[in-house]
């Protein structure tokens, strides 16, 4: 399913910084992503337009660095409940309660 770059996002009304570039890699059943100097992954399951992440299997390396972008992105991702993908427009949207994440395809 490819790589997607975060172009806009918010959680609880707070904007998620888009710099440095945050590339979400989508594979069958798993999202992987950078988080500051760390990286993370979380399994997912799609049912129609609904998506569910297995929060108990959310993993993240622990290199000892933190960032506002990483903290907000992790919080937003785990509260996401639905997705919308427009292949013709090369966009991916994830939404949930007070969460909005918009991505553009990195490798069209």
Summarize this structure as a short list of keywords or feature phrases.
108 residues, mainly beta, Lipocalin, 1 helix, 10 strands
Describe the structure.
- This protein has one helix at 68-79, and strands at residues 2-11, 14-15, 23-27, 30-35, 38-47, 50-53, 59-60, 82-86, 91-96, 99-105.
- The chain is mainly beta and 108 residues long.
- It has a single domain (2-105), classed as Lipocalin (Beta Barrel).
- Strands 1, 2, 3, 4, 5, 6, 7, 8, 9 and 10 form a ten-stranded antiparallel sheet that branches.
- The protein starts with a strand and ends with a strand.
- The mean pLDDT is 86.
Largest sheet: 10 strands, antiparallel
CATH structural fold name = Lipocalin
Low-confidence region ranges: none
Helix content: 10-25%
In the CATH hierarchy, what is the class?
Mainly Beta
Q: Supply Rg.
A: 13 Å
Write down the overall mean pLDDT: 86
Q: Please give the domain count.
A: 1
Shape: globular
Write the layout of secondary structure elements.
Elements lengths: L1 E10 L2 E2 L7 E5 L2 E6 L2 E10 L2 E4 L5 E2 L7 H12 L2 E5 L4 E6 L2 E7 L3
């Amino acid at each position: 399913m490819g790589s997607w770059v975060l172009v806009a996002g918010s959680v609880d009304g707070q904007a998620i910084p888009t710099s440095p570039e945050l590339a979400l890699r989508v594979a069958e059943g798993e999202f992987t992503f950078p988080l500051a100097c760390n990286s993370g992954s979380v399994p997912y399951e799609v049912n129609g337009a609904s998506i569910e992440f297995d929060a108990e299997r959310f993993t993240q390396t622990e290199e000892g660095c933190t960032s506002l972008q990483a903290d907000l992105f992790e919080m937003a991702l785990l509260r996401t409940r639905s997705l919308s993908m427009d292949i013709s427009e090369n966009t991916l949207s994830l939404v949930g309660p007070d969460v909005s994440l918009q991505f553009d395809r990195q490798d069209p």
